[in-house]
Write a structure and sequence with these properties.
This protein is an all-alpha fold. About 80% of the residues lie in helices and about 0% in strands. It contains 2 helices and no strands. Helix 1 runs antiparallel to helix 2.
């Protein structure tokens, strides 16, 4: 279940980033492009999260 939720959140972030880019380009509002960058960053950092090993 945890894996499915992680995939769904990643897809939602990607769709939101693409939508923000699209709205920013069509309307010319730079804020939407910045929002798209933030959402895309969240997508990539969530996809490739740092996994730390426990050292005994």
């Amino acid at each position: 279940m945890k894996g499915i939720l992680r995939i769904l959140i990643a897809l939602a972030l990607l769709v939101a980033a693409i939508t923000s880019y699209s709205m920013g380009i069509q309307s010319g509002v730079f804020l939407f492009i910045i929002l798209g960058l933030v959402l895309e960053g969240a997508f990539w950092f969530g996809l490739f999260s740092i996994k730390r090993r426990k050292e005994a």
